[in-house]
Design goal:
This protein is mostly helical and 423 residues long. The chain is built from 21 helices and 3 strands. The model has no long low-confidence stretch (mean pLDDT 88).
């Protein structure tokens, strides 16, 4: 029988040669049927830890979510021999391996729930709290916001009692993200303020600080304060970029978004020409450049073409999608006003043909603009006309008459009261 060290080396060699079947067999033998019980427990635990982590990496690389879930369950039979901190590290690492496996969110959620219950049964409080935070993050990704909030509220109470500021920052930041997704901006802002306050009293890791800056930028963009939002996104980008984090490209898109919303197209080009940004040239950046060019040209057709051509890049992220929807509405409104400004009555079919949209879209937008009092007019759908009125002038005499009648009414009421008291 092979010695344990030799078995581990064989497994590593097989993995390097992409003989994953042999590697898996050897790793599992080390984990579940350790071949030599005469070695010291320290050495055995070291090798079993290596085997669990390395086999998890293989499943992650092969995107085999089901086998990764099984590994987590099987590993629990030996994890009781490890120190609590080591156990927490191993389980968290395995759970995080799901992050890069496509279409594995449901399995990851289930595996995390099972691991939380296992941690509760074995009185592993630190692991249980870490996994609950991870579960709330997964539920947030899944769109189950209320379920995520329930876990967060419980964690907030625990961490405040423990005065664990570093964990509080992570929980409060996630709370801010969930409230933002629920469109409860005041609560999202309050949670972020709490997170920043907690972060100021401790050493905050670079990536966590970058996440805080990103969330600050998102909330400022909600207030249409794009200038302040850009400064936060810039700080966030610097943090992620310094750590070679994959989120850098998304933050770069947010930076470009703020400049597009401010119609500072020259700034978009200046950012893209910066040396730190050159390596991020991709279809994502091409999408942002296409939108910037279309908005600069005030071309609705170019804007629509960009949205179709780069549909995945522009609609996969809800932040970018929402702001570009607003940008499209603004551009559509400007184009419609430009078409109708020289008419008092115009056919809807002519507007539709000129702007390049179908009649139903044009009618819907014009109706909305009339209701919002962007211009004054009425849709004559029977004849297919838009009738535009001049802005009505207020008659000052009308308001003065109303005030006079109101004052006279007050005088009559007072006289009536005095007359009643005399009787």
């Amino acid at each position: 029988m092979s010695q344990p060290s030799a078995l581990l080396e064989q497994a590593r060699d097989a993995a390097a040669l992409e003989d994953y079947t042999l590697a898996e067999t050897n790793y599992k033998q080390l984990i579940l049927n350790y071949p030599d019980q005469t070695v010291t427990s320290t050495k055995r635990l070291q090798e079993q830890e290596s085997a669990i982590i390395e086999l998890g990496k293989i499943y992650q690389k092969n995107e085999d979510a089901e086998k990764l879930r099984q590994l987590i369950e099987q590993s629990k039979s030996v994890l009781g021999d490890f120190a609590k901190s080591k156990t927490a590290k191993i389980v968290k690492t395995l759970i995080e391996n799901f992050d890069t496996i496509s279409n594995s969110l449901d399995l990851q959620i289930q595996s995390t729930r099972d691991s939380i219950q296992w941690a509760i049964d074995n009185k592993l409080s630190f692991l249980r709290q870490s996994l609950q935070l991870k579960l709330s993050e997964l539920l947030y990704k899944k769109g189950l916001f209320q379920d995520g909030l329930k876990i967060i509220n419980d964690l907030l109470r625990e961490y405040k009692k423990l005065d664990d500021k570093s964990s509080l920052v992570e929980v409060q930041l996630l709370e801010s993200k969930i409230y933002h997704s629920l469109r409860n901006i005041p609560k999202s802002r309050a949670a972020l303020t709490s997170a920043r306050t907690s972060a100021n009293s401790i050493y905050c890791p670079t990536l966590l600080q970058a996440e805080l800056d990103c969330q600050s930028g998102i909330l400022n963009a909600e207030d249409k304060d794009y200038k302040t939002a850009f400064s936060y996104f810039y700080e966030s980008f610097e943090g992620f970029n310094s750590q070679d984090d994959s989120r850098s490209i998304l933050i770069l898109k947010y930076m470009l978004l703020t400049k597009i919303m401010l119609n500072l197209i020259d700034d978009v080009n200046n950012i893209l020409n910066h040396k730190n940004v050159q390596k991020y040239q991709s279809k994502d950046i091409d999408a942002m450049k296409a939108i910037a060019t279309a908005y600069s040209n005030r071309s609705l057709k170019e804007f629509e073409n960009a949205l179709v051509t780069y549909s995945t890049e522009l609609k996969s992220d809800p932040i970018i999608k929402n702001h570009f929807n607003a940008l499209y509405d603004n551009l559509l409104e400007q184009n419609l006003l430009k078409i109708i400004e020289s008419y008092s009555c115009v056919e809807l079919s002519h507007i539709s043909k000129t702007i390049g949209l179908n009649l139903q879209q044009v009618e819907g937008k014009l109706s909305q603009m009339i209701l919002d009092k962007v211009f004054y007019g009425v849709l004559d759908q029977g004849n297919g006309w838009l009738i535009i009125y001049d802005e009505p002038r207020k008659d000052a005499a009308y308001d003065a008459s109303i005030d006079l009648i109101k004052n006279l009414s007050n005088v009559v009421d007072l006289l009536y009261e005095k007359a009643s008291s005399l009787n």
